[in-house]
Amino acid sequence: MMLPRQDLIAESARLRAYFETAGASPVESAILQPADALLDLYGEDIRARAYVTADPLRGELMLRPDFTVPVVLDHMAGGADPARYTYSGEVFRKQENDPDRPNEYFQVGFEIFDRETPEAADAEVFALIAGALDGLPLRPATGDVGILTAVIEGLGLSLDRQRALKRHLWRPRRFRALVERFAGRRPDPPQRQALLARVASGIDVLAGAGPAIGLRSPAEIQARVERLVADAQQPFLTAGEVDILDQVTGLKDTAPAALERLHDIAVDMPALSDAVARLSRRLDALSARGIPVDSLPFEASFGRTTLEYYDGFVFGFTAPGRPDLPPVATGGRYDALTRVLGKGRSIPAVGGMIRPEVVLQLRQGAGAWG
Amino acid sequence: MGLKLGVPSKGRLMEKTFDWFAARGVALERARSEREYAGHVTGIDGVDLVLLSASEIPRELAAGRVHLGVTGSDLVRDKLAQWDDQVTEIEPMGFGQADLVIAVPRIWVDVDTVADLDAAAAAFRVEHGFRLRIATKYHRLVREFLRREGVADYQLVDSQGATEGTVKNRTAEAIADITSTGETLRANHLKILADGLIHRSEATLFKSRRADWSGGARETFETLKGRLGAIA
Question: Residue B131 carries which DSSP code?
Answer without folding.
Answer: P
